[in-house]
Amino acid sequence: MDPETIVITSPTKIITVYGADSYFGAHMVKHLDHTDQMVYGFSQNKDLNFDEEPMLVQGREKITFEPAPIVSDWIVVCLDPGIGVNTYFSRMKHLCNYLIEQEFFGRVCFVSSANICQSSYKEISEDTVVCPRNETDLALAIGENFLNVMLHHKKNQAGTLVVRVGVPYGNEVGLSDTTGMINRLIQKAAAGEALEVVKPTEVKRSCTHIYDICEAIIELLATGDLCPFLVNIPGETLTIQDIITTVTERFPVDINYRPCTNDDQDFFIGDQHLSDEYFKENSDYERKINFKKWFNDTFTGEFTKSKPCISL
User: What's 199's domain CATH number?
Assistant: First the structure.
């Protein structure tokens, strides 16, 4: 055996990220690697199989598992709903059946979105009605329900944690394609493209930098068996107009207003103001990044197309 290799047979500080090549997954791997956890990353492009070689292994030591990393304390599911609702459905169904077959005894964290919640002008709490508007929302709603139904029957021992986030922004790992309304607006404006926006722009969105999302999730994972079943990751409440004004002050581009469609991913009518009451009951984490300060600090100096559109 390689002298640098340690064989671990007990489930101690081991986390598997399923979808390590997605926006959320790549950032979760980056942040977990700064902790003392061992991180195994598997691609979202195929069904999870612990007998196959993971796409990455990160940690302070090179580790060989005996048995395979089914001994993970946590599996963090970061599948991108952009892979398509049918593929997403298939991946989640296989994941749940696979964990049941393997008698997985750890916990599963599922990264979801508050976009699946019913539009309203009230705070979105953990018991707000789920009402998907498009296939992206539908995929996430399916994912939540698969975990809730399939992993909580047949005396299965796997625990679950669903975290819902608002509008993420930022790109710490140099991805060419990023998730979220803010990232999309910045990328277009930085490229000199006109922004297509829907009125009213005074509706609210809960905006959270990817750094704060990952760190908040990691703190929740650390609570182990005491973690909640479902919790919002609250963000900074901004109006869409606040975001547009900040972006266009730096990148002055045209704004074209278009009609709102019922399935609009970014500009749905109604506020997205996440309640933080339950989060504060389960975590002491305080958000570190303010959107306007981050934007001004990030996009200073002359912009060139060779420069990454979004970076920290």
Answer: 3.40.50.720
Q: Which of 187, 189, 180 is nearest to 213 (CA)?
A: 180
As for how many domains the chain has, the answer is 1
Q: Which amino acid is at 231?
A: V
Length of the chain: 312
- 219 contacts 192 by C-beta, under 8 angstroms: no
Q: Helix 23-32 and helix 210-221: axis angle, to 10°?
A: 60
Question: What does residue 209 show for φ and ψ, rounded to 5 degrees?
Answer: -65, 145
β-bridge pairing 56-58 and 38-42: antiparallel
What tokens does 60 get? 């302070």
> Which residues neighbour 149 within 8 Å (Cβ) at sequence distance 6 or greater?
none
Residue 77: give the domain boundaries: 7-297
95: in domain: yes
Residue at 305 is within a domain: no
Q: At CA 110, angle to CA 104 and CA 112, rounded to 5?
A: 165
Q: Is residue 280 part of a domain?
A: yes
Q: Is residue 198 part of a domain?
A: yes
Q: pTM of the prediction?
A: 0.88
Q: What single DSSP character describes residue 271? A: B
Instruction: State residue 231 phi and psi, 5-degree precision.
Output: -150, 140
Q: Give pLDDT tens digits for 36-95.
A: 788 999 999 999 998 888 888 876 454 554 444 566 789 999 999 999 999 999 999 999
